[in-house]
Specification:
The complex is a heterodimer of chains A (110) and B (124). Helices cover 0% and strands 50% of the residues of chain A. Chain A has no helices and eleven strands. Chain A has strands at residues 4-5, 9-12, 18-24, 36-40, 47-51, 55-56, 64-69, 72-77, 87-95, 98-101, 105-109. With 124 residues, chain B is mostly beta strands. Chain B has strands spanning 3-7, 10-12, 18-25, 33-39, 45-51, 57-59, 67-72, 77-82, 91-98, 111-114, 118-122. In chain B, the strands form two sheets. In chain B, strands 2, 4, 5, 6, 9, 10 and 11 form a seven-stranded mixed beta sheet that branches. Chain B is globular, with a radius of gyration of 14 Å. The chains are: A mainly beta (110), B mainly beta (124).
């Protein structure tokens, strides 16, 4: 079974830029996997950040951007702020009505 | 305001059953792709099931044959019937809308609306 991979943790300085990735244990991520990204703080429901590779959800600051980088989907946060410190998840559509979430990245801003 | 409200969680013994409900507001469940996503304590998100606007249903391998997703158009509510529950099914279960359009064009492909979640604990 294909696994969706994310960095377990990442650290960024306030004001800095960080790129989180979403890959496959086998193969390359393309736009046809319709990657989307979610932000989750402890005890809260996920918040949708990015649709379909690179479309920002309503109300999401333009500091958040999505793309395909090489063989992975990517979420880039520019000008990181303290309240960006939380968990980030990607999900890929694998076809045949199956979606798979990545394991999530815990982002630390310090 | 577009909203999803889950209910029905609780404590159940291994092998038992539970039915979760998700009431939708300001949009029609039957016209959208609707899904269940769960999160075990301290773990990541896991996609569980989806019902297409055309009624087709899909399941993760971990729940196939035990869980059934359905909807009630008159009540505008999504359900998840969970049978043969196991300890590893213990999680917060979120209801989520995938796509805000029946045709689900590429630009709308994401779980765009989430409920607050309902906790299911499977333990003796």
């Amino acid at each position: 079974q294909t696994v969706v991979t994310q960095e377990p943790s990442f650290s960024v300085s306030p004001g800095g830029t960080v790129t989180l990735t979403c890959g496959l244990s086998s193969g390359s991520v393309s736009t046809y996997y319709y990657p989307s990204w979610y932000q989750q703080t402890p005890g809260q429901a996920p918040r949708t950040l990015i649709y379909s590779t690179n479309i920002r959800s309503s109300g999401v600051p333009d500091r958040f951007s999505g793309s395909i980088l090489g063989n992975k989907a990517a979420l880039t946060i520019t000008g990181a702020q303290a309240d960006d410190e939380c968990d980030y998840y990607c999900v890929l559509y694998m076809g045949s009505g199956i979606w798979v979430f990545g394991g999530g990245t815990k982002l630390t801003v310090l | 305001e577009v909203q999803l409200v889950e209910s029905g969680g609780g404590l159940v013994q291994p092998g038992g059953s539970l039915r979760l409900s998700c009431a939708a507001s300001e949009f029609t469940v039957s016209s959208n792709y609707m899904s269940w996503v769960r999160q075990a304590p301290g773990k990541g998100l896991e996609w569980v099931s989806l019902i297409h606007s055309n009624g087709n249903t899909y399941y993760a391998a971990s729940v196939k044959g035990r869980f059934t997703i359905s909807r009630d158009n008159s009540n505008n509510t999504l359900y998840l019937q969970m049978n043969s529950l196991r300890a590893e099914d213990t999680a917060v279960y979120y209801c989520a809308r995938y796509c805000s359009s029946t045709s689900c064009p590429p630009v709308l492909r994401a779980f765009d609306t989430w409920g607050q979640g309902t906790m299911v604990t499977v333990s003796s």
